[in-house]
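Need tokens for this chain, all 148 residues.
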Amino acid sequence: MSPRLVAASLVLNVFLIGALAGGAGWLIGRSNPGYSLESAGGQLPTDDRKAFRQALREVRRESRQIIVDGQQARRDAANLLQQPTLDTAALAAALERARNADVAIRAKLEQRIVEFAASSSLDDRRLLAEGLVRHVGRQRPPPAKNTQ
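Here are the structure tokens for all 148 residues:
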């Protein structure tokens, strides 16, 4: 077999293995989707689901600077962790900035969900509630506390 044919076969096989692995990962991800506040509205009727997702996208767009600040705080924390001497005060401050950004975004998203729910029908609110409960059902129960 010529060296070119072997190289071409090797490249093709690597490509096919990558495609199969990527496809399998994609299928696994679709069968067990991650949870987000947006996924709670996944069972709403099409028009309502679009409006729900649009409302949450608006919050993210309006909060872009807070998101960027939180990402920068996480990068700062990662950089601090890689330093030869750990500055625990700076690390704690960076992590606090990241946490505060996360909490601020979460609060804004939740407020927008409240506003959406206030203008929704009872049936739509029930679908939102079911979406939230589905998330709770997928979580592992907390470990039992030792009461001794």
